[in-house]
Amino acid sequence: MTKLDFLNTIYSSILNKKLHHSIILESNEQEILEECGKEFERILFCESHSIENDDCSYCKLVNNNNNQNLYEVLSDGNQIKKDTIKKVIARLSLTSFQSNFNKLYIIKNGEHLKESAANALLKFLEEPPKNTFCLIFTKDITKILPTIKSRSLIYKTESKNNLISGDKLLNFYTKKNKLQLLEYFLELKTKDRVSVIDALEYNFKAFMRINFRISEWIIEAIEEVGKYNYYILTLENLFYKIIKEL
Q1: 195 to each of 165, 170, 200, 226, how far by Cα in Å?
Q2: What is the pLDDT of residues 227-244, one digit of tens each?
Q3: Which of 110, 128, 209, 245 could form a disulfide with 21 if both were Cys (CB 3.0 to 4.6 A apart)?
Q4: What are the φ/ψ torsions at residue 61 (nearest 5 degrees)?
Protein backbone atom coordinates (compact mmCIF):
# COMPACT_ATOMS: atom_id res chain seq x y z
CA MET A 1 0.00 0.00 0.00
CA THR A 2 1.06 3.60 -0.45
CA LYS A 3 1.63 6.11 2.33
CA LEU A 4 -1.73 7.71 1.55
CA ASP A 5 -3.47 4.32 1.72
CA PHE A 6 -2.01 3.76 5.17
CA LEU A 7 -2.98 7.21 6.44
CA ASN A 8 -6.50 6.90 5.04
CA THR A 9 -6.86 3.55 6.83
CA ILE A 10 -5.71 5.11 10.10
CA TYR A 11 -8.01 8.09 9.59
CA SER A 12 -11.05 5.85 9.04
CA SER A 13 -10.17 3.71 12.05
CA ILE A 14 -9.92 6.76 14.31
CA LEU A 15 -13.20 8.23 13.06
CA ASN A 16 -14.96 4.90 13.64
CA LYS A 17 -13.27 4.52 17.04
CA LYS A 18 -11.74 1.23 15.92
CA LEU A 19 -8.05 2.11 15.94
CA HIS A 20 -6.08 -0.97 16.98
CA HIS A 21 -3.87 -0.50 20.03
CA SER A 22 -0.76 -1.86 18.26
CA ILE A 23 0.29 -1.31 14.65
CA ILE A 24 3.43 -2.49 12.88
CA LEU A 25 4.49 -0.54 9.81
CA GLU A 26 7.06 -2.09 7.49
CA SER A 27 9.01 -0.25 4.81
CA ASN A 28 12.53 -0.52 3.44
CA GLU A 29 12.78 3.29 3.44
CA GLN A 30 13.27 5.10 6.75
CA GLU A 31 11.97 8.33 5.24
CA ILE A 32 8.57 6.76 4.54
CA LEU A 33 8.39 5.34 8.07
CA GLU A 34 9.17 8.74 9.59
CA GLU A 35 6.64 10.54 7.37
CA CYS A 36 3.91 8.01 8.19
CA GLY A 37 4.71 8.21 11.90
CA LYS A 38 4.48 11.99 11.94
CA GLU A 39 1.14 12.03 10.14
CA PHE A 40 -0.18 9.15 12.27
CA GLU A 41 0.65 11.19 15.37
CA ARG A 42 -0.91 14.36 13.98
CA ILE A 43 -4.18 12.68 12.93
CA LEU A 44 -4.49 10.87 16.27
CA PHE A 45 -4.03 14.02 18.35
CA CYS A 46 -5.73 16.52 16.04
CA GLU A 47 -8.80 18.00 17.74
CA SER A 48 -10.97 17.09 14.73
CA HIS A 49 -8.83 14.08 13.66
CA SER A 50 -8.45 15.77 10.28
CA ILE A 51 -6.42 13.91 7.66
CA GLU A 52 -5.06 17.30 6.64
CA ASN A 53 -3.29 19.74 8.91
CA ASP A 54 -6.07 22.06 10.14
CA ASP A 55 -3.68 24.11 12.28
CA CYS A 56 -5.44 23.25 15.53
CA SER A 57 -3.51 23.55 18.79
CA TYR A 58 -2.50 19.88 18.71
CA CYS A 59 -1.46 19.97 15.06
CA LYS A 60 0.83 22.85 16.01
CA LEU A 61 2.26 20.90 18.94
CA VAL A 62 2.97 17.91 16.72
CA ASN A 63 4.52 20.00 13.96
CA ASN A 64 6.73 21.75 16.52
CA ASN A 65 7.72 18.44 18.16
CA ASN A 66 6.15 19.54 21.46
CA ASN A 67 3.63 16.75 21.96
CA GLN A 68 4.15 15.55 25.53
CA ASN A 69 1.85 12.56 25.02
CA LEU A 70 4.25 11.07 22.49
CA TYR A 71 7.08 8.81 23.56
CA GLU A 72 9.65 7.69 21.00
CA VAL A 73 11.71 4.56 21.62
CA LEU A 74 15.10 4.66 19.94
CA SER A 75 17.77 1.99 19.56
CA ASP A 76 20.85 2.00 21.75
CA GLY A 77 23.29 1.08 19.04
CA ASN A 78 21.55 -1.80 17.31
CA GLN A 79 19.37 -2.95 20.19
CA ILE A 80 16.44 -1.86 22.34
CA LYS A 81 16.84 -3.08 25.91
CA LYS A 82 14.29 -4.25 28.45
CA ASP A 83 14.98 -1.27 30.74
CA THR A 84 14.08 1.11 27.91
CA ILE A 85 10.72 -0.58 27.41
CA LYS A 86 10.05 -0.62 31.16
CA LYS A 87 10.62 3.15 31.31
CA VAL A 88 8.15 3.63 28.46
CA ILE A 89 5.55 1.47 30.20
CA ALA A 90 5.98 3.39 33.45
CA ARG A 91 5.49 6.71 31.70
CA LEU A 92 2.47 5.54 29.71
CA SER A 93 0.81 4.29 32.88
CA LEU A 94 0.60 7.90 34.09
CA THR A 95 -2.20 10.33 33.30
CA SER A 96 -1.89 12.19 30.00
CA PHE A 97 0.40 15.18 30.26
CA GLN A 98 -1.94 17.32 28.16
CA SER A 99 -5.72 17.55 27.95
CA ASN A 100 -5.95 15.23 24.93
CA PHE A 101 -6.30 11.84 26.59
CA ASN A 102 -4.61 9.81 23.83
CA LYS A 103 -1.07 8.57 24.32
CA LEU A 104 1.24 7.22 21.65
CA TYR A 105 4.58 5.48 21.71
CA ILE A 106 6.58 4.86 18.56
CA ILE A 107 9.25 2.18 18.50
CA LYS A 108 11.56 3.32 15.73
CA ASN A 109 13.40 0.04 15.00
CA GLY A 110 11.24 -2.88 16.04
CA GLU A 111 13.75 -5.41 14.72
CA HIS A 112 16.21 -4.14 17.36
CA LEU A 113 14.05 -5.27 20.27
CA LYS A 114 15.98 -7.75 22.39
CA GLU A 115 13.95 -10.81 23.36
CA SER A 116 13.66 -9.63 26.98
CA ALA A 117 12.49 -6.20 25.79
CA ALA A 118 9.99 -7.76 23.38
CA ASN A 119 8.61 -9.94 26.18
CA ALA A 120 8.20 -6.89 28.43
CA LEU A 121 6.40 -5.10 25.60
CA LEU A 122 4.22 -8.16 25.00
CA LYS A 123 2.80 -8.01 28.51
CA PHE A 124 1.90 -4.37 27.94
CA LEU A 125 0.25 -5.14 24.59
CA GLU A 126 -1.86 -7.87 26.15
CA GLU A 127 -3.49 -5.40 28.56
CA PRO A 128 -2.87 -1.90 27.17
CA PRO A 129 -4.15 1.12 29.10
CA LYS A 130 -7.16 2.82 27.60
CA ASN A 131 -6.45 5.24 24.72
CA THR A 132 -2.81 4.17 24.53
CA PHE A 133 -1.46 3.23 21.12
CA CYS A 134 1.74 1.66 19.88
CA LEU A 135 3.30 2.18 16.44
CA ILE A 136 6.27 -0.04 15.59
CA PHE A 137 8.55 0.71 12.64
CA THR A 138 10.51 -2.07 10.98
CA LYS A 139 12.46 -2.68 7.81
CA ASP A 140 12.26 -6.45 8.29
CA ILE A 141 9.02 -7.88 9.65
CA THR A 142 10.59 -11.35 9.93
CA LYS A 143 12.74 -10.09 12.82
CA ILE A 144 9.72 -9.14 14.93
CA LEU A 145 8.67 -11.80 17.44
CA PRO A 146 5.58 -13.76 16.29
CA THR A 147 3.89 -13.02 19.62
CA ILE A 148 4.23 -9.26 18.98
CA LYS A 149 2.96 -9.63 15.42
CA SER A 150 -0.03 -11.69 16.53
CA ARG A 151 -1.21 -8.82 18.75
CA SER A 152 -0.71 -6.13 16.13
CA LEU A 153 -2.11 -5.05 12.80
CA ILE A 154 0.61 -5.14 10.15
CA TYR A 155 0.92 -2.78 7.19
CA LYS A 156 3.58 -2.58 4.52
CA THR A 157 4.15 0.57 2.49
CA GLU A 158 5.72 0.66 -0.95
CA SER A 159 9.03 2.36 -1.50
CA LYS A 160 8.89 5.64 -3.40
CA ASN A 161 10.64 4.00 -6.34
CA ASN A 162 7.98 1.28 -6.46
CA LEU A 163 5.29 3.94 -6.49
CA ILE A 164 6.13 4.97 -10.06
CA SER A 165 7.33 1.59 -11.33
CA GLY A 166 5.53 -0.48 -13.96
CA ASP A 167 1.98 0.44 -14.91
CA LYS A 168 1.07 2.02 -11.57
CA LEU A 169 -0.33 5.10 -13.34
CA LEU A 170 -2.72 2.92 -15.32
CA ASN A 171 -3.61 0.95 -12.20
CA PHE A 172 -4.48 4.08 -10.20
CA TYR A 173 -6.45 5.46 -13.16
CA THR A 174 -8.57 2.33 -13.62
CA LYS A 175 -9.32 2.31 -9.89
CA LYS A 176 -10.31 6.00 -10.16
CA ASN A 177 -8.14 6.66 -7.12
CA LYS A 178 -7.42 10.39 -7.21
CA LEU A 179 -5.29 10.34 -4.06
CA GLN A 180 -2.97 7.70 -5.48
CA LEU A 181 -2.80 9.56 -8.79
CA LEU A 182 -1.80 12.70 -6.91
CA GLU A 183 0.86 10.83 -4.95
CA TYR A 184 2.15 9.26 -8.18
CA PHE A 185 2.67 12.63 -9.85
CA LEU A 186 4.10 14.25 -6.72
CA GLU A 187 6.72 11.51 -6.60
CA LEU A 188 7.32 11.64 -10.36
CA LYS A 189 8.13 15.36 -10.05
CA THR A 190 11.06 14.52 -7.75
CA LYS A 191 12.72 12.21 -10.28
CA ASP A 192 15.42 12.99 -12.83
CA ARG A 193 14.55 13.34 -16.51
CA VAL A 194 15.58 9.80 -17.49
CA SER A 195 13.44 8.23 -14.74
CA VAL A 196 10.46 10.40 -15.70
CA ILE A 197 10.71 9.44 -19.37
CA ASP A 198 11.09 5.74 -18.50
CA ALA A 199 7.98 5.83 -16.31
CA LEU A 200 5.93 7.71 -18.91
CA GLU A 201 7.03 5.46 -21.77
CA TYR A 202 5.96 2.36 -19.86
CA ASN A 203 2.55 3.86 -19.15
CA PHE A 204 2.19 5.10 -22.73
CA LYS A 205 2.25 1.48 -23.87
CA ALA A 206 -0.16 0.47 -21.10
CA PHE A 207 -2.70 3.19 -21.93
CA MET A 208 -2.60 2.33 -25.64
CA ARG A 209 -4.74 -0.69 -24.75
CA ILE A 210 -7.56 1.19 -23.01
CA ASN A 211 -7.48 4.95 -23.67
CA PHE A 212 -5.86 6.25 -26.83
CA ARG A 213 -6.41 9.91 -25.90
CA ILE A 214 -4.45 9.59 -22.65
CA SER A 215 -1.69 7.72 -24.47
CA GLU A 216 -1.43 10.71 -26.84
CA TRP A 217 -1.15 13.10 -23.89
CA ILE A 218 1.59 10.93 -22.41
CA ILE A 219 3.63 10.86 -25.63
CA GLU A 220 3.31 14.66 -25.87
CA ALA A 221 4.56 14.93 -22.29
CA ILE A 222 7.50 12.63 -23.08
CA GLU A 223 8.50 14.90 -25.97
CA GLU A 224 8.32 18.02 -23.76
CA VAL A 225 10.28 16.41 -20.93
CA GLY A 226 12.97 15.47 -23.44
CA LYS A 227 13.20 19.04 -24.76
CA TYR A 228 13.11 21.23 -21.67
CA ASN A 229 15.09 21.31 -18.44
CA TYR A 230 12.07 22.44 -16.43
CA TYR A 231 9.31 19.88 -16.91
CA ILE A 232 7.30 20.18 -13.67
CA LEU A 233 4.55 22.15 -15.43
CA THR A 234 4.35 19.44 -18.10
CA LEU A 235 3.72 16.79 -15.45
CA GLU A 236 1.17 18.97 -13.67
CA ASN A 237 -0.74 19.54 -16.91
CA LEU A 238 -0.74 15.80 -17.61
CA PHE A 239 -2.05 15.12 -14.11
CA TYR A 240 -4.94 17.59 -14.49
CA LYS A 241 -5.91 16.13 -17.88
CA ILE A 242 -6.00 12.59 -16.51
CA ILE A 243 -8.00 13.66 -13.44
CA LYS A 244 -10.61 15.32 -15.68
CA GLU A 245 -10.83 12.13 -17.71
CA LEU A 246 -12.00 10.10 -14.69
Answers
A1: 10, 17, 9, 11
A2: 887 889 999 999 999 999
A3: 128
A4: -60, -45
